[in-house]
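Structure in, sequence out. Go:
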């Protein structure tokens, strides 16, 4: 007898877990639906936010928008203004928004997990914020574009760390985990320099690089023809990122 908990027989969690990393077509279709709905939930909550709202107000809207779509918000993080720089993983508080907002959600439905981050500015963002957000978007794009079938997770992470250095922020990756393989766990495998998992088509990644004041994150299917962003929408502003590895669109800061 085997088990996925200690005390009931030999633990075979790693062996069982590996069987669920590569998704079947019906699971991929469910993931596409979840990704779209999860993106819509967070983006709707962020668009509804206004200066004077508390972080808890935004988190409550996010939870409500998720629940409306039969999604459980298993991670629901919000930071405003200086807390964005202070907290990479910010539980919401009573702090009220003045100028800037970051919302983060991981939504679960039918076992699958979709994660994304969005940022909002309620006045014209300063040049440093724009520059840093463009830098983290390039890091995110590099990680996504390198997430190809056959590449090891630590090698993909290494390319992202190279991009951190190219952007002038070589140490920032040490301040928070960078994401990794997702699916039936919020992160099935966290990417570290020791993560030797070899990626395959129809697996899903969620990278979340961050630089002080900014973060970029979406959930992405490793497709046979390239990456497919699952947590996309047709309403959030996007910017095309050009890199030697290719080009792709990444979310920008929404200006309200």
């Amino acid at each position: 007898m085997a088990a996925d908990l200690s005390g009931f027989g030999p633990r075979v969690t790693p062996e069982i877990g590996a069987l669920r990393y590569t998704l079947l077509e019906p699971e991929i279709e469910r993931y596409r639906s979840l990704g779209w709905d999860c993106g819509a939930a967070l983006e709707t909550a962020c668009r509804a936010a206004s200066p004077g709202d508390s972080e808890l107000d935004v988190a409550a809207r996010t939870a409500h928008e998720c629940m409306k779509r039969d999604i459980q918000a298993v991670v629901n993080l919000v930071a405003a203004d200086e807390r964005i720089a202070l907290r990479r993983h910010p539980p919401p508080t009573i702090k009220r928004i003045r100028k800037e907002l970051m919302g983060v959600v991981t939504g679960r439905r039918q076992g699958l997990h979709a994660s994304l981050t969005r940022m909002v500015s309620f006045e014209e963002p300063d040049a440093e914020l724009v520059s840093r957000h463009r830098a983290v978007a390039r890091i995110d794009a590099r990680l996504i574009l390198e997430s190809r079938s056959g590449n090891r997770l630590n090698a993909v992470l290494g390319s992202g760390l190279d991009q951190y250095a190219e952007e002038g922020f070589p140490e920032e990756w040490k301040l928070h985990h960078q994401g990794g393989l997702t699916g039936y766990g919020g992160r099935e495998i966290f990417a570290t320099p020791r993560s030797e998992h070899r990626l395959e088509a129809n697996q899903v990644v969620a990278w979340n690089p961050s630089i002080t004041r900014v973060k970029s994150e979406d959930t992405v299917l490793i497709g046979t023809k390239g990456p497919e962003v699952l947590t996309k929408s047709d309403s959030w502003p996007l910017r095309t990122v050009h890199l030697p590895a290719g080009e792709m669109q990444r979310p920008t800061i929404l200006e309200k």
